[in-house]
Amino acid sequence: MLDGWGVNIQDEYNAVFSADTPVTDSLGAVPKRYRTVRAHGTAVGLPSDADMGNSEVGHNALGSGQVIDQGARLVDLALSSGQMFKLPGWELISKAFADNTVHFIGLLSDGGVHSRYDQLLGCVRGAAERGAKRIRVHILTDGRDVPDGSSIKFTQQLQDDLAALAPDCDAKIASGGGRMCVTMDRYEVRQCASRQEACRHGRGRGTGCARMCAQLVRVCECAATAERCVRDPHSCGTHCAPLPPTIQGHHD
């Protein structure tokens, strides 16, 4: 079995097809010695056939001999059935909903590989419907399982969805930043501890109010793009992963 080896449309954009692969070609030429299997979608336990596979999916699915629901599918089922809100962990924190702030932190995208926007929203709405009066969300922009620059769209969408919970629930974006600059930098792990202070102690670049969060994302991306373009005129794209830690400017 080959991890990361895909069989798809045979054109010049297909690296596997375009490469010189004499060994694989010789194996495929022998009857009953070579076959392909589906490595995405419902065949490997993902919610829909529009969901791509990845390393984690392969680790769970290879050798199982059966379709096993992946984490994303399990969360979907738990949210749709309401079982999510009956789990011991949820029941434990729900006792504090009325007089405390409920915090959510995680990746903000709808790529389905690293995170799912609808699952975050399902948890936030579930908390509000079950007595949470104050919710704060700490977002990590991705740009890896979704196009770079899409964090602007997701941030604006989240602001609108959180605002819709008023007046019964005061829900806002409290802080955020790029995944590689806040909590998930696998290459500079030692720096992550200091970057996490933005979330723990409120240290980071401030914004005036909730509606400015998306504006800050855009400003940071434009600044990063300008800096890159000076160094390399051919790399003028926007990147969500390295956005600096950001704190919303309200005092509550």
Quick summary:
The chain is an alpha/beta fold and 252 residues long. 38% of the residues lie in helices and 12% in strands. The protein folds into two domains: 57 residues, no CATH class; 167 residues, 2,3-Bisphosphoglycerate-independent phosphoglycerate mutase, substrate-binding domain (3-Layer(aba) Sandwich), CATH 3.40.1450.
Task: Work out the helix count.
Answer: 11
Distance between the termini: 53 Å
> In one word, what is the shape?
elongated
Going by helix content, strand content and strand pairing, the class is alpha/beta
Mean pLDDT: 76
- Could you give the order of strands across the largest sheet? 1-2-3-5-4
Identify the quaternary structure here: single chain
Overall tally of structural domains: 2
> Which consecutive residue ranges, at least 5 long each, have pLDDT under 50?
191-195, 206-213, 219-237
**What is the CATH superfamily label of the largest domain?**
BPG-independent phosphoglycerate mutase, domain B
Second rung of CATH, namely the architecture of the largest domain = 3-Layer(aba) Sandwich
Number of strands: 5
**Beta-strand fraction estimate:** 5-15%
